[in-house]
Amino acid sequence: MTLGNAKRGQHVKIIxxxxxxxxxxxxxxxxxxxxxxxxxxxxxxxxxVLRKNRQEIAIGRxxxxxxxxxxx
Amino acid sequence: MAHCHDTGIKINMPENARRIVLAGNPNAGKxxxxxxxxxxxxxxxxxxxxxxxxxxxRLSNNVIIDTPGIYGISSFNDEERIARDIILSxxxxxxxxxxxxxERDLFLTRQIIDTGVSVLVVLNMIDEAQKQGxxxxxxxxxxxxxxxxxxxxxxxKQGLAQLKTxxxxxxxxxxxxxxxxxxTHLADRLxxxxxxxxxxxxxxxxxxxxxxxxxxxxEQIYLKRREQVNNIVGHVVxxxxxxxxxxxxxxxxxxKPITGIPxxxxxxxAMFQSIGVFIAGTVVGITEETILIGFYEPAVRSFIEQxxxxxxxxxxxxxxxxxxLTMTVTYVLGLLMPLVVGFYFFLAMFEDSGYLPxxxxxVDRVLTGIGLNGRAVIPLILGFGCVTMASITTRLLGSDxxxxxxxxxxxxxxxxxxxxxxxxGLLAGFGPGYIALxxxxxxxxxxxxxxxxxxxxxxxxxxxxxxxPPLRLPRVDNVLRKTGTKSYHFLKEATPLFALGALIIxxxxxxxxxxxxxxxxAPLTVGWLRLPPExxxxxxxxxxxxxxxxxxxxxxxxxxxxxxxxxxxxxxFVPCIASIxxxxxxxxxxxxxxxxxxxxxxxxxxxxxxxxxxAIFGGSSNTxxxxxxxxxxxxITISVLLTCRLLxxxxxxxxxx
Lengths: 72, 657
Fold this sequence. Notes:
The complex is a heterodimer of chains A (72) and B (657). Chain A is an alpha+beta fold and 72 residues long. Chain A has one domain (3-71): Roll (SH3 type barrels), CATH 2.30.30.90. Chain A is built from two helices and five strands. Chain A has helices spanning 20-28, 61-66; strands at residues 11-16, 36-42, 48-52, 55-59, 68-71. The radius of gyration of chain A is 10 Å and the shape is globular. The model of chain A has no long low-confidence stretch (mean pLDDT 92). By secondary structure, chain B is α/β, with parallel strands linked by helices. Chain B has two domains: 19-239, Rossmann fold (3-Layer(aba) Sandwich); 255-650, no CATH class. Chain B is 64% helix and 8% strand. Chain B has helices spanning 30-38, 78-88, 102-114, 126-131, 138-145, 163-166, 177-190, 193-200, 204-209, 218-236, 246-255, 257-305, 313-319, 327-353, 355-368, 377-385, 387-393, 400-413, 417-428, 432-456, 476-511, 513-520, 522-528, 535-544, 546-553, 560-572, 577-587, 589-618, 625-650; strands spanning 19-24, 42-46, 53-59, 62-66, 92-98, 118-124, 134-136, 149-151, 237-239, 465-468. In chain B, the strands form two sheets. In chain B, strands 2-3-4-1-5-6-8 form a seven-stranded mixed beta sheet, with helices on both faces. In chain B, strand 2 and strand 3 form a beta hairpin. In chain B, helix 13 packs antiparallel against helix 21 (476-511), helix 14 packs across helix 19 and helix 21 packs across helix 24. The two termini of chain B are 50 Å apart. At the A-B interface, helix 1, strand 4 and helix 2 of A face helix 3, helix 10, helix 11, helix 15 and strand 10 of B. Strand 4 of chain A pairs antiparallel with strand 10 of chain B.
């Protein structure tokens, strides 16, 4: 599944991020490939808000649709 | 060449002085530490090729340089590139980290340590960490990083006193063994471990400075560093209770559309009430009417009268209707200054509280429709403060396409604070119908133009990836300082342009040029926009500064509909001279000229449409005219949206899915 399909309240594991620049920035924020994150909020047709410990990151929907995740 | 220690900014370095560089993530409290350490003596220097300002000051014999807030040193955006160059030239780096956000902040810390520079870590906001139930083992952190760690609460000045001397304690930290080997090997050739690190991490700029191919190990190094940081955090941080404070709850509400949109509307309404009604009405009533027109202007006139006749040409230029000493001063200090201060105050509160990135998340979906992502809301909102300044901040956007769209939309549809204040003041008296007409027409133009640009401008926009810092109460001293600095910059920038504008208009008036121009523009103003000929003056003044144009209307007796038409036209057409210059600088002459011409065409087309339609629909009364005009604009917007959607659908591989 993709991050775009994740539902509010789910824990997901990031499997693959396609773009190299995005991948590097994700590692900086601690949500790189392999990280388990909490899906805090899903805006209707809008961004997905992730939480990793105390870190909150908002990711645009189209980007989220290209990030592969599994349920954890 | 081997020793590339050039930050690019001109800083007077006394002999034997060391460069102490302050670095940290956004919202780590860097500016508070910087202001404490440097005191009042701070210089500001523009970074070459950009308009980003870098502050620096003295700390005993040494020079301390501030850097923009960043998450890491690389080349993802301008701020990072600048911070990278300054950090690479540092003798000592003071790294301010947010104790409540160690996982994020220590990534930068480890990267700075890997550059081989001497580092001192300031563990700031320990009170906030404690509030969140976090306990941090500072001694262990010192051991694991290999550099001294000083806990502080910068806002309460706790721990800051020892920082004044603590930089001597800075030392080189632990670098991963395998990485160190590679770095040492490469640094032998480059003469600097920091540049070696960036070459390995694939930084193209640094690599090309040395005539090397950028390395391809960025991801490997980043992953390893992330692992180390998680490890360190796992050891030094112990979490007891975790109370979800009011900040967390409110933060959630701001993002959820069902609560976020009402919250945003309430905030905007509060802003409108404070700036448009209270400041534009009550405060300006005192500053403009009572103080400047009541006391200042007569005083200046009677003073000048002692030397020259007020009816002479010079007398008219200095103290006449558009006098450099009378009208300029009254407009700048009496009318605009209070509005600008009020706006920057709100903006500083937005920035300081962490509300801005949440607004970005909330509106992301809407902005993707006009080829932008939520992040663009930051320059767009800043544009309400000053379009010129906001055009510069478009550099934080991810692609050239987004910068192009944002700058044009901003120049076209966003009224700056000074102008907005005047507009709000003028409209407030006419009732909700006219306010709605103005706002909806401008909004329709924004949506139509944005949608068209998104369909027509080639390329692909980047997507939202934004950090949401913890929500907190804005700190009064920080907010006031930001408001003060920005208002001062406004005064410095606006006053000469205003004086110039006043001078031009007075000269035109004396030479009869104004009447000639008014006559020349009559087909446009009188025929097409259905306005009295004097309004041409407002348009001419508006070229100098938009707010100046709007301010000129306050003295004309216009019908409400005529006022709204002028305001729509002035809002849409040319931004002020300063912002045009910046647009030319940012976008080049060709594109800048197209944008400038574009704003004229759109402004007069839309203004004319409103004028003609209101005349046809409304006749003498506007009760029917306003809703009909609004309905037509909504219809146009919807048809443009649908057409563009169809066009995009038929285009394979487009953004819509």
